[in-house]
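Action item from last meeting closed. Structure (289 res):
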């Protein structure tokens, strides 16, 4: 996946926020890794929301993403890639969901407070429903590569963003309200919610060349098979069973909140091949997830 160099991405609404430099040396300590294992892709953050957790102070000031004007800029910089990707994903969902409203997208520097808790690379990317905002620290991608053996290339990075957009769509369309948290397990609403977000992400990737800037230039080139495989690898890496194995524990499906590696990869592929219409993970039997 590559942005077209001459695509105009200057109209993105993404903002940068944070109150500290990145963790020294670009790494993450043992405690932060343990937090990441638990909270990847909105798991703990949404549970904290249901329990009324707060962010611990006023958020830091926001600023624009600098030097993010063209597709060439997005190809060179992770923060700009997030900002540019938000333009394409917003356009996709505006054409798909009647009455769609765009979420906020915050690129986190170090950490920042939110109504759903602290956002940082230790907590992983997440969507905060009361703010209708996605938070993502680009150094999270390096963490996936270094700690969890994922390739985390450009398309995998946009899969992460598109997954969080999937949660926004679930929120504004009432899916979250209709399917509240009912605990953990392979048949839980939490697992179904995450697998649907994976499917939504795949649906966007399958149509990602159709979004265009104001002059009619597509934002993105068609992904190669290797880039699609990279995105599938990212989905597999964040499966509950893989995370449990990597953390040295036993695989316990009854504690799952996001689904297995095979499930996450499969539902991404379902969306990629079949589009949004195949992404109803709530009406099928648990043994078919």
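Sequence:
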């Amino acid at each position: 996946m590559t942005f077209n160099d001459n695509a105009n991405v200057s109209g993105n609404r993404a903002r940068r926020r944070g109150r500290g430099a990145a963790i020294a040396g670009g790494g993450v300590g043992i405690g932060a890794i343990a937090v990441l294992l638990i909270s990847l892709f909105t798991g703990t953050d949404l549970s904290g929301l249901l329990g009324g957790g707060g962010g611990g102070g006023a958020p830091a000031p926001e600023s624009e993403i600098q030097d993010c004007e063209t597709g060439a800029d997005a190809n060179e910089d992770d923060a700009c890639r997030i900002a540019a990707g938000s333009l394409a994903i917003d356009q996709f969902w505006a054409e798909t969901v009647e009455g769609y409203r765009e979420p906020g997208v915050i690129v986190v520097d170090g950490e920042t407070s939110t109504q759903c808790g602290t956002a940082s690379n230790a907590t992983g990317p997440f969507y905060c429903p009361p703010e209708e905002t996605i938070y993502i620290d680009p150094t999270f991608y390096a963490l996936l590569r270094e700690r969890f053996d994922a390739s985390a290339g450009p398309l995998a990075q946009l899969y992460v963003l598109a997954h969080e957009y999937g949660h926004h769509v679930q929120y504004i369309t009432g899916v979250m309200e209709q399917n509240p948290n009912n605990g953990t397990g392979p048949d839980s609403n939490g697992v179904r919610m995450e697998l649907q977000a994976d499917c939504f992400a795949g649906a966007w990737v399958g149509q990602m060349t159709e979004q265009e800037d104001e002059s009619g230039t597509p934002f993105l080139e068609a992904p190669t098979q290797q880039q699609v495989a990279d995105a599938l690898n990212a989905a597999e890496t964040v499966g509950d069973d893989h995370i449990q194995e990597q953390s040295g524990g036993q695989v316990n499906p009854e504690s799952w909140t996001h689904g297995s590696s095979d499930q996450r990869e499969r539902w991404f592929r379902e969306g990629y091949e079949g589009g949004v219409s195949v992404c109803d993970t709530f009406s099928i039997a648990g043994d078919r997830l």
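Note appended to the action item: DSSP finds eleven helices and seven strands in the chain.
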